[in-house]
Amino acid sequence: MKMIVAVLRPSRLEAVKDALSAIGVEGMTVSEVQGYGRQKGHTEIYRGAEYAISFVPKIKIETVVASDQCEAAIEEIKKAAQTGRMGDGKIFVLPVEFALRIRTEEADDAAL
């Protein structure tokens, strides 16, 4: 099993959710986060004054998939999230040693 963590533009959340649902990924956790990468934030003008915004709002999606489904999920996230502009986000993949569905006590792939 693999955990996929994707940090994306908030506007791309629905497209990514739909793309993952289409390939059978059933669950995900979504968090509103802030951060910056190479773009180092941005500036905004409010009432004539310019303000530096150091942290950019992003969406963090976490989902666990079977190992054989990982590459397809990464590809779908990449296609749905990509705009071609700086700040599109990042995808991280981590190994998952064990998963347990508490209600039924199903383990590993059956718990997904």
UniProtKB/TrEMBL annotation:
The keyword Oxidoreductase does not apply. Coiled coil: none annotated. GO terms for cellular component: cytosol. The modification O-UMP-tyrosine is found at Y51. It comes from the Bacteria. SMART domains: P-II. The keyword Membrane does not apply. Keywords: Nucleotide-binding, Phosphoprotein, Transcription, Transcription regulation. One of its GO terms (biological process) is regulation of nitrogen utilization. SUPFAM superfamilies: GlnB-like. GO terms for molecular function: ATP binding; enzyme regulator activity. Belongs to the P(II) protein family. Homotrimer. This is Nitrogen regulatory protein P-II. It comes from Iodidimonas gelatinilytica.
